[in-house]
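ok trying this again, last paste got cut off
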Amino acid sequence: MSIKPTKKVKKPTLHPNKTTLWSYFMQAIEPSSPDLNAAFPEYHPMWVIQSQRKTVSAVQFRLMREHLLKMTRKQCAAYLRVTIRIVQGWEIGKDAVPFMAFEILRLVSESENFKLSSKSWQGWFIDTNGRLVSPDRGSLSFSSDELSFIRETHQVKAMYQTENNQLRKEIAPLRAEIAELKAADKHYGLLNELKAIETRLAELSSMVVPNKVVHISNKSTTTESLLEARAA
């Protein structure tokens, strides 16, 4: 009876694989947590990688609160459901900053909701369908494609506006020249009337039949005979 060799069970490596390490390297993040490496052998999800972007410290906590989130200690304490004294103790180094409190601020600072928290975007939000909803016009909302189209529309508008301004610059001297000609001709209205009369005369002349025209000489034959007789 032959004994089959037992297969060696491959133990999971307690460090990220090459692909994950490449992701860490490209984002300038150091996979420094042994506990995470043990809990997530080889492959690290992106949210795990991002959780190691910042080192938990009193300085980093205060920087996130003041400069990224622009929160007062009172606001931060109310959001984390702790007292102001506790937040103060974390920031002055009296007590260690809990990872959960630190991670909550980091996640908030990188969230879409925070990025839409500018006063100029008051009331705007992204719904469950991924559409940006306006608070000012009822059910008006935009998809990413529609927003891109709006941008192109504004670009086309700007192009036509530039062309229109250029044409206006070219027309302006012509308008000025016409205005000068009108101002120089004091009888501009009279000339228009004379042109109208000339046109009417041309129409009347075209209606005359040449065969019916009677030619009148300066002196008739009878008048000439009488003058000759008196002279004799």
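PB: full thing came through this time. The mean pLDDT is 80.
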